[in-house]
Amino acid sequence: RRSSPFAYCLKRTIVVSLLNSTIGAAASSKNPNNSRDESGYLVGQLAELGPLLLGFYFPEILEAAFKRSEEKSQDLSDSIRDLTGLHPTKLSVEVISALGLPNLFKDILINSVNSQASNKDPLINRAAKILNCSVDIGSAITSGRSKIEIDTKLKNLQQNLDLDPQIANQLVASLPRVFRDHCSSLEIELPSLPEFLESYSESTSTGN
Q1: For the stretch 67-76, what's the b/e string if a residue is b when 16 or more beta carbons lie within 10 angstroms of its beta carbon?
Q2: By the 8 A CB rule, do 28 and 59 touch?
Q3: Torsion 63-194-74-40 (CA) sign
Q4: In this predicted model, what pLDDT tens digit does every residue of 7-64 receive, in sequence order?
Q5: 88 with 50: CB under 8 angstroms?
Q6: How many CB atoms neighbour CB 182 within 10 A?
Q7: Contact (CB, 8 A) for 145 and 74
Q8: Cα separation of 199 and 72, whole Å?
Q9: Residue 103 CA to chain centroid, in angstroms?
Q10: What is the model's pTM?
C-alpha cells in the first residue's frame, strides 16, 4: 500500500539516498550541476536499510514505531530504538559486515549516529556530516513537515558543510522531479513530494 509504514520507509530511503548523492557532489565541487556522487547514494541506502528490513520481517513492530513517531512527533529511528532497544543504523552496520562491504561505509554510518566515534579520517567525518544533513532534510520532507522546519534543516546544512545557500535551495527545488524520475526508472509508485519544494528555486537563501 502506498500509505503503509513500509511505503513511507521506502520513500524516505529514496529521498535520503538522492539527497546524500547530490549534497555530497555539491559539497565537494561547490557546483550544483555536478554529477551525482554514486557512493553517496549507496551510503544513503545503507543508512535507511534498518527500517526497511524491520518492516519486511516484522511489520507489526514497524507499524507500532510509526504510530509512536506520530504521537510523540519524533523521528522513526528514535521510535524503533525505543521499542526494540536497537538503533536501525546498527542493523545496517551488521548487514555491511555480513556482505563484506568496505569498512568505509560502516565507519560513516557509525560516525553519523555517534559523535564520540570521531574518525581520524576527515573524509569519513565529512561524509558522516553529509549523511546527517541528508537524513534530517529527507525525514522532514517525507514526514510532511512545514516549510519553516525544512528551512531550519537547510540552514543547518549550509552551516555544517559551508554550502552556498543558493546551491542548497536548488538541490531541494529539483528533488520532486528527480524523485519522480527515479521512481519511474525503478517502476514503483510512491506518493509525490510536496510541490512547494520547487519554490526553493526562486530563493537565493532559505527563508526568503
Answers
A1: ebbeeeeeeb
A2: no
A3: positive
A4: 999 999 999 999 999 999 988 765 545 556 789 999 999 999 999 999 899 999 999 9
A5: yes
A6: 17
A7: no
A8: 30
A9: 20
A10: 0.89
